[in-house]
Write a structure and sequence with these properties.
By secondary structure, the chain is of the alpha/beta class. The chain has one domain: TIM Barrel, CATH 3.20.20.70. It is built from 11 helices and 13 strands. Strand 1 and strand 2 (50-52) form a beta hairpin. The longest helix is centred in the middle third of the chain and has 18 residues, at 183-200. It is globular and about 50 Å long.
Length: 348
């Protein structure tokens, strides 16, 4: 069905197509069984001491305001991450702000954390219990001077509605956000997050979403802070604001974060570095260029406990999750793995 509809969808502005997808998903008409595959038990795994039916997640950015996560679970995702959510409602950057790079199987976006705000979103999730593992990705409002306060605000308000909370310090579209990769700034943020968790008695795991553009020399310092402050996971990685020189599409020089195939090897190599440095003791979620079972397997064998996708679904449609699961099961059987967890980090 998607291959039939794709020419029409791709004739629309990318953000208009996304809005149409959100509205369609609100109808929630597709049966979950449509996306089941045989042998799914091979894909069962654990993340933050939670059982996942499979390690394939939907990255933050698709369901920004937590409107359609239960419809998305029907596609067969093992977990879903909504957001990025900011304390106050935010319209984001001026349009146009999303660009398809079809020749490169990529997207560039400079959305700027457009979402309905923590008040609306917390109420929405409270009234519509998730049918699976739900993560909430949080960040600061653009106009906030003290960004740490916005993280603390969102953690306090949204934590109880999630299975884990992702601290987004890596979007290239919010000025100053990536400053939190500086070890002094990161340490101040982590101290504050731990204080909130203790004071409010919050038990949900905290995950940090990192930039793919960090220097190799920063890996060890980040790992030490993550261990010191008991951060349970790392998402590697967000979009990149570099790596444009080998792209073919004329839109390659648009300002914003680049995702999709051009990010695949960058994020996989970074996963290997963090896996080696953490010795597999910190959970890693791999993101970037996943559009097949093979690309998901590469991330997992590099050290990812689970993976997330977004751009791949834009190009291949909702059936991509079923296709990835089928291919992953085939790979596991061929390689004589008893389950997916046996493959984690074997090529790191």
């Amino acid at each position: 069905m998607f291959s039939f509809l794709r020419p029409y969808i791709f004739s629309l502005d990318p953000e208009a197509a996304h809005d149409l997808a959100i509205q369609s998903l609100k109808a929630n008409f597709l049966p979950k069984s449509f996306f089941d595959v045989e042998g799914q038990e091979l894909l069962e795994t654990e993340l933050f001491n939670m059982k996942l039916p499979n390690p394939i997640g939907l990255a933050a950015g698709f369901d920004k305001s937590a409107e359609v996560y239960n419809s998305l679970f029907k596609f067969g995702f093992g977990f879903i991450e909504v957001g990025t959510v900011t304390p106050k409602r935010q319209l984001g950057n001026p349009k146009p702000r999303v660009f398809r790079l079809e020749k490169d199987q990529a997207l560039i976006n400079r959305l700027g954390f457009n979402n309905h705000g923590s008040e609306v979103i917390s109420e929405r999730i409270s009234n519509n219990k998730p049918n699976g593992i739900l993560g909430i990705n949080i960040g600061p409002n653009k106009e906030t001077k003290n960004k740490e306060d916005d993280y603390y605000n969102c953690l306090t308000k949204l934590s109880i509605y999630s299975n884990y909370v992702t601290i987004n310090i890596s979007s290239p579209n919010t000025e100053g956000l990536r400053n939190f990769h500086d070890q002094n700034e990161m340490e101040k943020l982590l101290v504050g997050l731990n204080k909130i968790k203790k004071d409010k008695n919050l038990n949900q795991p905290i995950v940090i979403k990192l930039s793919p553009d960090i220097d190799d020399g920063d890996v060890s310092g980040i790992v030490e802070l993550i261990k010191k402050y008991n951060i349970q996971g790392i998402i590697i990685s967000n979009t990149t604001d570099s790596n444009r020189e080998n792209l073919y599409d004329i839109k390659k020089n648009e300002i914003g974060g680049l995702s999709g195939q051009p990010l695949k090897d960058i994020s996989t190599n970074l996963i290997k570095k963090f896996y080696k440095d953490t010795k597999g003791r910190i959970k890693i979620i791999g993101v970037g260029g996943i559009d097949s079972g093979q690309s998901a397997f590469e991330k997992i064998t590099a050290g990812a406990d689970a993976v997330q996708l977004y751009t791949g679904m834009v190009y291949k449609g909702p059936g991509i999750v079923k296709d990835i699961k089928k291919e992953l099961i085939s790979i596991l059987k061929k390689e004589n793995f008893k389950d997916i967890s046996q493959a984690i980090g074997i090529n790191a």
